[in-house]
Structure formats: structure tokens, C-alpha cells
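Request:
Um, any thoughts?
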Amino acid sequence: PYTTLFRSVNFQASSGKVSSDYMGIAFDSHRLINLENLNETIDSYLSNIDTIEHRLSTMETNVAAVFDVASAFRTLLVQALNATNAEVAATNENSSVLFDEAASLLNLKVDGRYLFAGSATDRAAVDLTNFDPDDVSYDPVNPIPANMGYYQGNDTILTARIDDDILLDYGVTAKESGFEAQIGRAHV
């Protein structure tokens, strides 16, 4: 017993550890295992937070770019008020390019997931291919219900667990009213 105790004290002094394995700390092993599990859980939550922060930052950049596209479109429309026929044709072509750019920005894909499509992360949020801005059921004077034919996602907002008791909803969909006003009501 004395030599075992001496080896244990000698090991502690030289390594700074109580034991080289769980057997040497049998009485406290449950506490160590609980702490290791807690550490893994916290690391998982921190990873979720980092992922959300990256996605939101990227989404924010794209929303700002969509706003820039909307500003460019508004400028085109103001210029078209005093334009000749040739300039109007160019305005139509340029506005079509801007709509495609807005759709591309809203079809943001990060780590294999489309971020503006709600929880339908496996498909693009916006598809202008079969979208009919002149849908007979849509009245631009009274835009309710909105013209959502461009939107291919769903209404479910993304969520992530960031703590034992906190489930965080984050992000926006391309179905939000600001995007609908730009794409659904103003598409050329």
C-alpha cells in the first residue's frame, strides 16, 4: 500500500495529473465523464452559433445586394419616363437582367443549402422560368393575395439549438413582402 501511494504521489507531482487512467480516479470518474459530456454539448452549441453567424452574415450581404438591384431598377424606371422607344427597349432588357440578378442573389447556396427557401434547403428559392407576372388572379392595384409564383421554398424559418433551453429561429425567406414587391409585383 505504501509503494502504491508513493507511486501515485510521484505520478501526480511529475505529470500534474491524479492518474493516468480512469481506474485511478474511480470515485470521481462519474464527475469527469459528466464534464466531458458537458464540454462536447457546449462545443456543439458553439458550432451551431458559428454556423448561424456565417449564414446570417452571408444572407445580410445578399439582401443588401438585392436592395442595390432594386435601386438600380428604380433608376431605370425614372430614366424610362423621358426615354425614346430605343431607350425603352434597352430599359426592358436591362430590367430583365436585374430581375435575374435579384433571383440569383436570393438563390444563395451555402454549404449545399439554399438559405432563402425556408426549410426547403434542397431547392432554389426563386424560379423565374415559369413565373407569370401577369397572372390573371393577381391584381397589382390590390396586391393581396401576393403574386408568389416565383417562390419555390416553404414558409418554415430555419432553426438551430444554441442552448439546452434555446431553439433559435433565424433568417428570412424570398417570400418576404419586400422581395415579393420587387419580384412578384414589378417583374418585367
Residues 137 and 147 are 8 Å apart (CA to CA).
